[in-house]
Amino acid sequence: MTDRSLRPADPSSVGGHRLLARLGEGGMGVVYLGRTESGALAAVKVIQAEYAHDEAFRIRFRREANAARRVDSPWVVRVTGADPAAEQPWLATAFEPGPSLADAVGRYGPLPLRTVRLLGKTLARALTAVHDAGLVHRDVKPANILLAADGPRLIDFGIARSQDDTAITSADLVVGTPGFLSPEQAMARGGDLGPAGDVFSLGCVLAYAATGRPPFGSGTADALLYRAVHDSPDLDGVDEELRAVLLRCLAKDPADRPTPAELDAALVEDVSPGTAEWLPPDIVRMVAERSAAMLALPEIEATLAEAPREPAPSRRRFLAAASGTAAVVAAGGGVAAWAALRPGTGKKQAGAPGWALGVQADLSGSGRAAGQAQEQGARLAVEQFNARGDKQFTLELRTSDDAGRADRAAAAAQRLVDDPDVLAVLGSSTDETTQAALPVYDTALLPLISMSAGQNLYQNVRSFVRGRPLHGTVAMKLAFQLEAASAATPVGILLDRTAGDVSWQTVQMVNLVVRSYRDATHPRVVPAGTADFGPVLDDMRRAGIQAFVYAGPLEGAIRAAGELAGFEGPKYAAEPALDPRFAAQESAAGWTVVAAAIGPDAAQVRPFAQAFHQRYGHPPGFWAAEGHDAANLLIRQLTATQGRRPARKALAARLKSATYRGLTRDFVFDPKLLQLGTPATFVHQVRDGAFHYLGPAPDKAPRAKGK
């Protein structure tokens, strides 16, 4: 579990609650575990001082407290006290130690049908109480549902409002969590946000519980909002009877949705809500473990003090440590200099604290080659750091395997969050797993840098930076490379919807850039899961295409290469095709892939590649150098603390303003977008069954538009 000890700056009591531990910390404040004089436990939410001076925020906080107090239901966490007028406003609720629905599904996958029905019945009754109190919750989602042995609990009235209250919220403000909000919320129709919106959100929650995935998929906020308004929900695998009920909840027109009471009646189940049999055994154990861990507290004691600090190092020693591995490489030492840093050549300083970096990646799934490469690159950086004689602390590397699965990503992230030694994390391997893990890291303010996830992930940015360009930027560079390398036109562009938003972004950008150079395109789309590209490729050939671009997953790229074996024009594929399995196909010869990963055979990473081979006994794969760079970037931020152990939150802030010259790119982050201001993209071509590195992709095409 995460170290939940109170810190020197924490208060010892709030509003008659003796504080025992920290439960969590967010952007607005800290939640503590408190005990009243009578011995009752409570979750005490204390607002940070900087927000306490914001009168508008006090109004919102007072509204939250008053709203929650008016709800009377065993399935809604009860407010036990509040003081919005205090110097630091606070609100206390009855303490519920169980995990959230998001945690449970993230760890164990979809719930049994009976559990889903009981979950729906009890939450419908919770919403009935909320609506009877004249309120609309507006943020019903898996993270706001706690699981207890006798049933779920609905929490967090932070954005609830009275049904006739329109003064606080702007009419054009989207309120709620994309993926679990109603079409009227997605379109920011403030006047239409009534109880039916909560029913739609509950339908999304039940679909998530039954399938392990949100009914409108994952991706950017804009994409989720669009799907909520226009697309049908994904209910594949849902029991037919339950599916019919959920379709009513997820109706686009609020008037077509059932009331919570009608939903309660429609979900027929023999076991009554409130009995211990409602959860499957695995989650019962999870509830018990969480409860035991949270309640295994010492008797009330004074706030814990931090350990004494080591004396700060001299300026010369600090500068030597801060220069790090990059200085060795810059000295031109080649493999000899890198080998000098291999494990075992340095001595661990007596008494030096042991800190850890985390890596969350696909280490056992279908994308394990890339995930393992990142982990090995990062581990080499850590071992080289530990070999230095001037280090101020010793580092460890802790890994958490999500197997490349979004439904396991949150649990994988939680394992690193719960490890008190982990100060920052590299990960995860894919867009989907990073998207699923971000809320966990963001809540804990644990710094996270991703080198391979290129989606826009703006909804969670407090602790996250992206160390690679966005997919749209990579697609733009692909188009520049195509224009620079060939005058062939028209260009056939195939969008394979199996890869979701990534393919769409790629096709849109390539189409835009190619046409801006007055070249013609012939774009075509195939539905997700299409196994036969033959008809659409035949159509492209008949249209006279002279070049071809495929945007889709690895498997589709292999299929497209096979079916275009006789096509002589230039052939390009988006980043998912950067995989040895694609290059191994005989039909892939000559294909070009533009990606954010540098080639392991690039001259600028040759010393690293040789040291990697010496350490692991094989050449590095794609993304290994990026993992090495990310670890060294994090190490640089740690060494800048002069041997003082940083708080995670402070390290996250430092990371956002970091600058670092790595092997693969210069790391300079845009302070507004929290992404690289100096994106690096690279070109690879398949020859003799393997990828060969051609160099950086051009920043612009050399030909003029009027050519």
UniProtKB/TrEMBL annotation:
GO MF terms held by the record: kinase activity
KW Nucleotide-binding (keyword) present: yes
Keywords: ATP-binding, Kinase, Nucleotide-binding, Signal, Transferase
Chain positions recorded as ATP binding sites: 45
Start and end residues of each Protein kinase domain: 17-279
PROSITE patterns named in the record: PROTEIN_KINASE_ATP, PROTEIN_KINASE_DOM, PROTEIN_KINASE_ST
Signal peptide: none
Family statement drawn from the similarity comment of this UniProt entry: Belongs to the leucine-binding protein family.
Descriptive protein name: Bifunctional serine/threonine-protein kinase/ABC transporter substrate-binding protein
Species for this entry: Streptomyces andamanensis
Upper lineage: Bacteria, Bacillati, Actinomycetota, Actinomycetes, Kitasatosporales
